[in-house]
Amino acid sequence: MALKRSIRKALFISLWTVLGAGTLVLLVAAIRSRNDKTCKGIAIQVNGESKGKWLLDRNDIINQLTSNGKEKIKGRTIQTFDLQNLEQKLEKHIWIKDAELFFDNNETLQVRLIERKPLARVFTSMGNSFYIDDDGERLPLSERLTLKLPLFTGYPSEKPGLRSADSNLLRTVMDLSRFIAADSFWMAQIAQVDITPSRNFEMVPTVGNHVIEFGDGKDIDKRFRKLMTFYTRVLTNTGIDKYERINVQYDQQVLGIKRTTMISRADSVRAVKNINDMIRSVHDMQQAAADSSNINPSNPLVNGADAGNTTN
To answer: Containing domain of residue 47, as a range?
Structure first.
């Protein structure tokens, strides 16, 4: 009885060994057959789209893959492609954050790219300009698209390499840019953000003839809420050009420095109307979004409890 069990066990192991070996042989043969085939073409997707408003140019991608036309893709045998090397080559392009390459069942080289996403446009104190992305990388200006981004001026460093102080300043620029870009009202109202020699921030509004002294960039959400309260409770009553400077950097208060030379009443009334229209438009968009999802807006434009005191 024990002998029969041993024989059955041996036969079972032998059968699976033969099946495993056969499967391996077929797999190797399939891989060899595939590798002997030639590439029939290339398909490029950027940010998940085969067409769209890319910052990358298709010709730049092809040139990066082919070493500026020195190496061909279509008609070349698949086994000669070093996909990992090609991915690394693509990722050296300033605008490419991530690259993934593979051949599909139709022997087409699939190129899947993720572009770097510009977060802000920055002007240095010397007048040079560049984008920064959400990783803090400096990017050249795009000749293909005009991007609507928060604008910062007076950045003190011309060098790509950052000292500790420059790195901290860049992180604050990124945080401010994210906040402004995420809010349609502030994106429309903040024309530019100036970096002062003391590395504080002053904002120039689109509507209104005043300067917003924002301070060091801390407590971003709280300071913008205080500024919104000042707009809705003070400027809409007194006239938006009554104040020359509005300081929101101090805790629990907003300081308004009155203008010595008054703007004409007609211009002031027009400015108040413009900013009221902007506030109303953003509120309507928030309400429409809330209605579509059957919820109340979680972040109202004005929150008096967090706004602090207002000094006229």
So the answer is: 41-115
